[in-house]
Amino acid sequence: MSSENKNDMITVKRAAEIAGVSEYTIRRWVRESRLKAEKIKRGFSNRIMISEKDLRTLLDL
Q1: Is residue 47 within 8 Å of 40, Cβ to Cβ?
Q2: CATH of 6-59, one of 3.40.50.150, 1.10.1660.10, 1.10.230.10, 3.90.190.20
Q3: Residue 33 reports pLDDT greater than 50
Q4: Helix, strand, or coil (residue 14)
Q5: Are strands 37-42 and 9-11 parallel, antiparallel or unpaired?
Q6: CA 13 to CA 53: how far, in whole Å?
Q7: Domain ranges of the chain
């Protein structure tokens, strides 16, 4: 991973829980570049991981 520690990275589902929004909204924020994310290859699929610090900064928490 780039500059973030693996322990600081959270799933889309967890990010949605913290933000009080849907997983769709978190993915939209990523597409709109409002929130940085990294795709982690897991077998045949990818998992989107988000920096909890970046999420909290976006939410001003």
Answers
A1: yes
A2: 1.10.1660.10
A3: yes
A4: helix
A5: unpaired
A6: 16
A7: 6-59
d(CA 36, CA 58): 10
Model confidence at 43, pLDDT cuts 50, 70, 90, reads: confident
Query: What are 27's two structure tokens?
Result: 């993915």
Contact 52, 10 (CB under 8 A): yes
Q: What is the pTM of this model?
A: 0.79
Instruction: Give the Cα separation of 36 and 28 in Å (integer).
Output: 11
Bridge partners for 9 per DSSP: 51
Encoded tokens for 42: 């897991």
pLDDT-derived band at 46 (thresholds 50, 70, 90) equals confident
